[in-house]
Amino acid sequence: MSYYYSGIVAGLAAIVVVFVVKGVAGRFESKKKKKYHPIGGTIFHLLYNFRRVHHYLTDLTRKNTTFRILYLDNVEIYTSDPANIEYFLKTNFANYGKGSFHHDVLEGLLGDGIFTVDGERWKHQRKMSSYEFSTRNLREFSSGVFKNNAAKLAHIVSQSASSNQIIEIQDLFMKSSMDSVFKVVLGVDLESMSGTNEGSQFSKAFDEASEMTSYRYVDITWPIKKFLNMGSEATLKKCMKIVDGFVYKVIESKNAQKQDLQGGRGDILSRFLEMKEADAKYLKDIILSFIIAGKDTTASTLSWFFYMMCKHPHIQEKIVEEVRVLAKLNEHSGIDDIAQSITEEALDKMQFLHAALSETLRLYPAVPADGKMCFADDTFPDGFSVKKGNLVSYVPYSMGRMKSLWGEDAEEFRPERWIDDNGVFKQESSFKFTAFQAGPRICLGKEFAYRQMKVFASVLLSAFSFKLADECKPVNYRTMLTLQIDGGLHLRAVLRNKHEETTHKHLH
Hints:
By secondary structure, the chain is α+β, with helices and mostly antiparallel strands. The chain contains 22 helices and 13 strands. Helix content is 58%, strand content 9%.
């Protein structure tokens, strides 16, 4: 990846400037008699550690819970202190937003969607989206979609299990969650699990665009590359042509069917069109925000969850037992029977599964770091100052590994930490467990995400037992906007119901 190294070469020439800025900043700070958080590193350290950036930030967090990273013309404050996080995500919410920096970085992929804007534009999208997510119609429609796609995925896994083939499950989760989010958001059967060319093309382009967008955060030369249409920016532009073209085509198609939409369609796009939200670019930006929120997050979390299930087989079996009891399954239940038995009532009672998914998100948050911009000079609860224009980020990945927050066993996978003495799931403060953000911008799709993940986990674990294909192969993340497993997750699945295996062989 030449674009990865070009940023280092371009940046080294300017490294002296950083230390000049640092010296000037230090003298200026002492004059004002304000205290600022300790310096952890520079933009060049982030660039050098790009492939392991979350490890790097966690190492810095162990030295200082809140620290600064120096850029050439700005400073980013990284904090894992719940008091500071509550302050800028909730208490003084108005003073911290996406700002011009985050908007410019994310705009190439997400346009003016809900994750890139502030003020009235954000409020309008939040209000519309909040209303849609609260409708019973959408809840029922999405549950049917989740169960249907979980069963489809299980049948694909069944074919591999019967022939003792290794499966790459992250790719299957990505395709399946893409199919689910397309059906729920756009009302379209993408059928990417079935290998349709259009679905695969969209998915690949979307993933690559996400990686290029993430790279903008550490590549100070990206505006020049964009202007010259070269390197990572040329790749981003090419990918977005595919992504935008596909979504515009769907919007156009739905607009043409507008007269047929008067039947309370379940998907979100149809309902937005009913509400006369007809500007194509506006709809496209909202839709892409929903896709990145609904596809990447659940698929990557499920991948890490299954990785944990393989590393802790006793927990895998404990979840299977819980699902079987609550869904009233027996040892002869086939895939379709299992999917139909996962009712809303059964899902609500699956406390240990809920805990295991939360524990996965604690250690492997779908969005490992998230940032805002400070709009006016301020002081954090810890007594340190923040300047107007400074970037401020909280770091869920580092927070999940902090002993001061989670105890001495912070780095261990232990779902029991989420269960009280009565066997009931206990909530943690959203400023300590920040996987779904917190405050006014807290994730609208949190309950949807849990429901989708619980449906998929219930169906797959009830139908199969899973093991890593190679116990010795290291599993690492790929640095993107979301925390995906680099190179995928390769597993072996064994059917639990031997009757199902016999039937499958007979049919094929």
